[in-house]
Amino acid sequence: MFVIVRHGNTFAAGETPRRIGARTNLPLTEAGVAQARALGLHFSALGWQFEKAFVSPLLRTCQTAEAILAAQTDPATPEHADFLREVDHGPDEDQTEDAVIARVGPEAIAAWDAHAVPPPGWSVNADQRIAAWKRLFSARPACEDPILLVTSNGAARFALLADAALQHCLASLPSLKLPTGSYGVIRRSADGTLDIAVWGQRP
Fold it and tell me: Strands 52-55 and 78-80, how do they pair?
């Protein structure tokens, strides 16, 4: 089982959110830390003991992983994974959503959210990301314990494009996006088939 978490909030209440990607290393806000702690308690209450933890090297994801793993009785040591790093928004980095839409148009944002088609000027490295997810999904697990992956909204969606069975499940999802402080669960059956058990759930 693969538990994919999006980091907690990086903008305070009342602050205008902006497109923050790989080049902007923001910490969690107080509310973001609370979201991460809530995730840790939630996973602990479910009895999930993570075999491994893969984390984007950005501060916001590392802080989220730290809070989640703090709730584990025998926490895994987090491993940095570049394929989990947020995408580079190019000219839209650190811009408000209104400014981004004014540049690329609402159709481009809709295509990104529904099909992971990046707007012009963004650096996404989709092929490398999808290949990394495929390797992870195909690796034989050492045990049945779940694997934790802490990442960002832009990077998480490529997990759903890395397997034909998961792509078949996309029609039932409202969006590829994970809200901040939420998680998705991809399960692997005994025959290796993958399915989406949860996507975008908050504790």
Answer: parallel
Calpha distance 168→174 (Å, rounded): 14
Confidence (pLDDT) at 58: 97
Q: State the DSSP string of 139-166.
A: SPPSSSS-EEEEE-HHHHGGGGGSSHHH
- pLDDT category of residue 85 using cuts at 50, 70 and 90: very high
Q: Tally the domains of the chain.
A: 1
For residues 73-106, one letter each, b for 16 or more C-beta atoms within 10 angstroms of the residue's C-beta and e for the rest, the string is eebbebeebebbbbbbbbebbebeeeebbeebee
CATH number for 71: 3.40.50.1240
Nearest Cα to Cα of residue 158 among 100, 77, 99, 85: 85
143: pLDDT strictly greater than 70: no
Residue 148 lies in a domain: yes
For residue 183, tell me if it sits in a domain: yes
